[in-house]
Amino acid sequence: MNTAVTTDPLFETDFMREMLRQMRALDSYGVHDGKTAEQLLGPFVLTKEARAAIPVLGDPDEVALSRIRAFYNAIAVLIEKECGSMAVPLVHLSHEGFGRVLITVGRLVALDRRLRDVHRFGFDSFSKMKTEADTQLALAIELVGRHPDVAGL
Are 132 and 65 in contact (CB under 8 A)? Predict the structure, then answer.
């Protein structure tokens, strides 16, 4: 159990709590036990300088892929929580870091995002990460609301 406490109210939002759950689920050996939320989610924040230091061409490693899966899994969990139907994320990437993320609810594709340069996946700040997730979440929930018959299949 994590005894470290964060004081930033941003980490009390549903999305950030779910991101923490997703990241802790990836830590099967307890390596990150005791880390604060900022430390655990820190790899998601890439400043412009840090992003510039990463080569433009590169193959994603398993750590980068797991961060992408955690981000979209968190969005899928929140879609499911909001609409009451199971949301299933599918991340398909080439070895070069290009691909697509789909989140389906029933037979409805509630979210469809193209990904590129995933070895450089990150956000300028925690706030921008949450804003991006909230935007995608709102669009997906709105789409499920417009097509409940397809989402219910």
Answer: no
**At a CB cut-off of 8 Å and minimum separation 6, what does 66 contact?**
26
Residue 29: CATH number of its domain: 1.10.3100.20
Which pLDDT band holds residue 1 (cuts at 50, 70, 90)?
very low
Please report whether residue 44 resides in a domain: yes
Domain that holds residue 124: 9-151
> Does residue 125 contact residue 102 with C-beta atoms inside 8 Å?
no
Residue 85 has pLDDT above 90, yes or no: yes
Is this model's pTM higher than 0.85 or not? yes
37 within domain boundaries = yes
Q: How many Å apart are CA 141 and CA 124, to the nearest integer? A: 25
Report the 10 Å Cβ neighbour count for 33. Answer: 12
| Parallel/antiparallel/unpaired status of strands 99-105 and 87-93 | antiparallel
